[in-house]
Amino acid sequence: MQVGMSDIGSTPIRGESGLGRNGQRTRRVAGRLIDIVGYLDWVAMSLLCPLHDSHKLINTISTMNVMTTIPQPIVCSTVHMNRYSHLLTSLSASSSLSHVKQIHAQILRSGLDRSNSLIIKLVLSACTLYSPSFDYALSVFYQMHNPEPHLSNKLLRELSRSIKPEKALLAYAKMREQGFIVDSFSLPPLLKASTRISALSEGMELHGFASKMDFVSDPFVQTGLVAMYSACGHIEDARLMFDKMPERDIVAWNIMIDGYCGSGLYHSVLPLIEEMKRSNVKPDEKIFSTVVSACGRAGNLDFGKAFHEFITENEVMVDYNLQCALVIMYAGCGSMDMATNMFKNLSPKNIVVSTAMITGYSKAGQIEAARLIFDQMTEKDLICWSAMISRYADGVQPQKALQLFDKMLTSGVKPDQVTMLSVISACASLGALDNAITIQSYIDENRFSGVLPVNNALIDMYAKCGELDRARQVFAQMHKRNVITWSSMIGAYAVHGDASNALDLFHEMKSQKVEPNSVTFVGLLYACSHAGLVEEGRKIFASMVNDYNITPKREHYGCMVDLYGRANLLKEALEVIEQMPMAPNVVIWGSLMAACRIYNEVELGEFAAKQVLELDPCHDGAHIFLSNIYAKERKWENVGEIRKLMQNKGVVKQRGCSRIEQDGEIHEFLTADKTHARVNEIYEKLDAVVSELEVAGYTPNMSCVLVDLDEEEKTKALLWHSEKLALCFGLLRQKRGSCIRIIKNLRVCEDCHNFMKLASKVYGVQIIVRDRTRFHRYEDGVCSCKDYW
Ligand SMILES: [Zn+2]
Ligand SMILES: [Zn+2]
Q1: Domain that includes residue 40, residue range
Q2: What's the pLDDT at 706?
Q3: CA nearest 327: which of 310, 313, 348?
Q4: According to the model, what pLDDT value does residue 65 have?
Q5: DSSP secondary structure letters along 431-489
Q6: What pLDDT score was predicted for residue 703?
Q7: Residues of the chain with pLDDT > 70: what percent?
Q8: Is 487 in contact with 518 (CB distance < 8 Å)?
Q9: Rounded CA gap, 660 and 728, in Å?
Q10: Are residues 587 and 684 located together in one domain of the fold?
Q11: Could you tell me if 642 and 666 lie in one domain?
Q12: Which of 122, 145, 168 is the last residue of a domain?
């Protein structure tokens, strides 16, 4: 909006009286001149005087009381002029606050400090520096002598669009206090500032002031008020103001529509656009893009579709931006078919749209499709690299996250904290120690090591790689720790079956006055249940409820069921299930079933297994458990029934998968896997290992497989377990005294557990197996879990 004297003259603040017709015309001329030359007030005027009747002009201006700071006489020496323009040029070129202050000193020395236009230029310069100093700017502004409103408004406008819009409101309060003149042109920037910081009470005060001064009929003020109310969430007040506007331009309509989208009131958008059409304002493409984008952000597919139909029916020109917005909306709402169709026809395919497609596909579980788009992108920024890496890290292919991270670094894109957290989490789920160590050195070299969430993630990563010592090292070196840090370290001890360190750390945490949260207690209870510390676990549960007022969640009850179940306190375990306020889930019934299996509690076990099957009819473990207890009791009819059920439902035992890392490369084995490049060597090694272990007392434990399988199937189902294959692959290379690390997706079975124990003794190696729930560290024939898992 332009502020000129011609406009200012029409506001009620200024006295109109005393000016004749001639005077008014001259005033208009002067106004235009001032408009053209801006802040070159008296200097400019004296320069321009020869073009007009200078005497009359100055008289008029004086009468108008516009130029309160005109030095007299209005005769300007060339020296003065040069100095003035020199200072102006310097101000335009100033790049630092110290430079601005030097110019300020020169202004004071030259006596030009009475020129408000020069001072306001100085003030604006301080506001528009690379590192602006608003406080300095305002302190200079407050010292001005009654600055003309058009000058003050320049400052308000600058502040309202700066990084600190609140300073505009601060300046306004002070201006009123000091009696500076405020006019209707002051209001739009002030309302804009209120809008940007959602300052409702300040906005309402401005509304009151506008009504009092009769500025409220100004369309710019009205539009500002609509925007302010809408940004502050008072959408009804915004609409009230909007409806009062006699003339509404496209900006006002856009603000109102945007406001409805922002408040999630999509049902009000279409009627408003219809009304807009009726009032002969043609909606622009921008408005359609705005609405479509808002639908995408809100995930409101229904309205998004309806709006798309509206666009088609009304033959709206779908330009490139609107096309992009539609693709992003459909992808964001998970409607990938629609998104894909529109994306195909989009040209060029820019980074933002492609990234939206990647995210959409990933969320829909179509990671291959996401990767296809990713690979087709000619230009990639950090956001799209990060999106792709995080999808791999969260999914079932964490190794691909690491490969992609390497590629990203090679392409010269620098990762941020978000990328690093994804990469660390990929390492953690892989349990790949070599990779983990490489990532940590990258973190140390690239100054991520001081970042709290990164360090917390590193603790978890090392714990999951079976490296408690390194996890503890990261913990010890942290300068800042929060509850997540402590909980992560406690959880690390817990999954390694080291309850005593977990409990010690909890006491240290309390002594350092860090308030534990519900996650901390999951770790503690888990540690107790896996170490058989029933009494300690009971006390911790009670303390959580009574001392810390934490309402137990399902996980906490699950730990208690596990705690009692593992300790053969099955009655207590069942009591926990019966008394918990929420419905028990598959995991809880499953852990009771597992305890019943260990302690041969057939009746309760059968009950628990049936509960599991009710919640998850295809649960393989429950079918196998039932089939085996029926077989043990020679109820062959029931066994047959279960087998038939399994066939009918297509229940197959979830295939075991074990990973082992060698020279930074990850080798994966499924049960009975024959795909590895060195398959023959591995199976030969397995035969050799089995024979050697049998000498040491190993006999296959068939209780882990379905009893009615034939002999070959049984062997396959037992000896070809993935962790045994991974172990044999490791043994091909490993020497005595070394360490073999295996990561398994399922719980390790009793037979494999025994196998590993014996292997660690016979071959003199340490074997660390991470199964679905915990770590087993086998050394010299003994496991760290003390056979309690
Ligand atoms: Zn096994
Ligand atoms: Zn174990």
Answers
A1: 1-145
A2: 62
A3: 348
A4: 39
A5: T-HHHHHHHHHHHHHTT-TT-HHHHHHHHHHHHHTT-HHHHHHHHHH-S---HHHHHHH
A6: 67
A7: 89
A8: no
A9: 11
A10: no
A11: no
A12: 145
d(CA 141, CA 149): 12
Q: How many domains does the chain have?
A: 3
| CA 225 – CA 210 distance, rounded (Å) | 10
Query: CA-to-CA distance for 12 and 8, rounded, in angstroms?
Result: 9
Residues 599, 677, single domain; the answer is no
pLDDT of residue 70 exceeding 90, the answer is no
Expressed in angstroms and rounded, the spacing between residue 593 Cα and the centre of ligand 2 is: 19
- Please say whether the dihedral angle defined by the alpha carbons of residues 744, 749, 751 and 753, taken in this order, is positive or negative: positive
- Distance, CA 751 to ligand 2 centroid (Å)? 11
pLDDT at 55: 45
Q: Is 767 helix (H, G, I), strand (E, B) or coil?
A: strand
Q: What is the DSSP letter of 25?
A: H
Going from the Cα of 748 to the center of ligand 2, the distance in angstroms, rounded, reads 8
Separation between Cα atoms, residue 562 and residue 587, nearest integer Å: 10
pLDDT tens-digit map of 326-370:
999 999 999 999 999 999 999 899 999 999 999 999 989 899 999
CA of 496 to the centre of ligand 1 (A): 19
Q: Nearest ligand to the C-alpha of residue 786?
A: 2
Instruction: State the DSSP code for 218.
Output: S
Buried b (16+ CB within 10 A) or exposed e, 267-279: ebbbebbeebeee
User: Is 18 in the same domain as 134?
Assistant: yes
Q: Which ligand is nearest to the CA of 719?
A: 1
pLDDT average, residue stretch 675-692: 94
Ligand lying nearest the CA atom of residue 658: 1
